[in-house]
Amino acid sequence: MKKLIMVTGFPGFICERLYRGLIEDDPATNFILLVHPTQVEKAQHLTDKDERVTILPGDITQENLGMSEADKISLQDKVTHFFHLAAIYDLAVPQDLAYQVNVIGTQNVNRFVRTLRSLQRYVYFSTAYVSGTRTGRILEGELDKGQTFKNHYEETKFEAEKRVAAMKGVPTTIIRPGVVVGDSKTGETIKFDGPYFMLRFLDHFSFGPVPYIGKGDEPLDVVPIDFIIRATIYLAKSEQGIGTFHLTGGATYPSQEIYKIFSRELLGKEPSFYCPLGIAQTLLKIGPLRRYLGLDPEAVAYVYHPSVYDSTQASNVLKDGGIHCPDLIEYIPNMVRFFKEHRNDPAMRVQVR
């Protein structure tokens, strides 16, 4: 049977890269891209009228994903693989919006996926941070451990993953990425959030000494987008790829070490004094200062959270495909170079509230 992949979340960064990776992996693949009506024009531009692609306007928060009954029925015997990436990823998202998109939207997708009679694999993009406030080593087989959450993004992705994991009889791959950054080879990304907030902060210290913010002994689990794409595609077609997988970097380096290397690459100097974390967090409550520094308090919480995401199951499957996460230290220069080239592009700078 000819492969027909249906995808939600296009033209988001991860989804757009996944689409290109899937085409490269199998050029004969056809696609149904379920695209929110507000993103159809952008999606058409990115797919460049590719004959293998059908752009279907839809909305996962709506009944039947916003599709017509005719479209829904026509797809039930054709779709072989379903990749669900559509979600609200903003760490400061309001609860109602996060629940509507991440939880209700996933429930609607699950309902549709159950009707697909030719389905070979359902791939759901979760996050390693469904672990919430848990500390220590987090295993791939663990989900609900009574944890609380740092924000509504984590909480609603946890609730959504519970609903996906509860589906019976559906061949499902759950992907839990760490903090995703740009391409390890080119440095390319589409926005400077996550660890890039460190670079945005450091960019203010071209002159004078550079501070550390807190001790930063906690590991920060960073993974490049090219690894995420290669690993996801391999897991989606592997017989061993059913289950839950941490696509993480192993948190080899503490955040302080990453920050120091960022400073050296960006500014040519290392931090020389400490600003206690408590003082920094108090200062970040001052809106104008927070916006000037370009430092998101929600992102700071991830830098100082002591969790390690065990990826034994993912590593065991991926090693058969020769896939492993690149060493962060090796590609930091590419990240910083791309940041320098695009630091003044307003489209790249996530708005700090």
UniProtKB/TrEMBL annotation:
InterPro entries: FAR, FAR_NAD-bd, NAD(P)-bd_dom_sf. GO terms for molecular function: alcohol-forming very long-chain fatty acyl-CoA reductase activity. Residues 7-231 form the Thioester reductase (TE) domain. This is Male sterility protein. It comes from Marininema halotolerans.
